[in-house]
Each structure stands twice: as C-alpha cells, then as structure tokens.
Amino acid sequence: MEKYDRDRHTHGIKPYSPPKQKTKKGLPLGLIFGMIVGSILGLFLAPKSGQSLREDLKDPKGVFEDQKDKIVDKVKVKKAELEEVKRIKDSDEDLMAAQKRAIREDVKDGYVNKDSVDLSNL
Question: How many helices (H) and strands (E) does the chain have?
C-alpha cells in the first residue's frame, strides 16, 4: 500500500490571499467626467449655427438669463391661474352659503313651491 505524500498532493496549489480592496473613487470621478464630456458634446451637437454658439459661449450669462426669464414668466402665469381658481372657489363658496341661508329661511317661513309634491299624503 502506498503512503500519503503531502508534498505531492499540495504541489501547485497556491495559498489563499484575500482580494485587494478597491477604492470607490472611480464612480464619482467617472460621473463627473461623463457630465463634462456630455455637456461639451451637447453644445457642439446642438442644432445651432456656429455664430450663435460662439455668441452663447462668449456670454453664458445671457443664455441662463433667457431661460430664467422664461421660467419666471411661466411661474407668473401659473400664479395668476391659481389666484383665479381661488377667486372662483371663494365666490362659489359665498354663493353656496347664500343659497343655504335662503333655503333655511324658506323652510322656517313654511314656503311650499307649487311645483313640488307632498309625499306625506301618499
């Protein structure tokens, strides 16, 4: 019977070493790099003439001010619409309260509409 030879059976097996920890800086740096490259490509691939692109690059504040003015105008329009809805709601609530008061007064006075049917006699 053959004896067990430890060196013969473990020959070629490398000892286990835990994997190295990777730094987590790759993702944020990749995102920042991608945003920069994407914005530059977006500027140059936009359907604008070269002259207007150069003007935009010379005065970037103008582009943002134009966009800001458009947004401010939209906000003003939405605010006016909201105020109109609130005014209509308030007037409807006032009208509803007036109708409730009129109905209560009619009930107190014993008013009976000639077109109504008294179901208590049936």
Answer: 4, 0
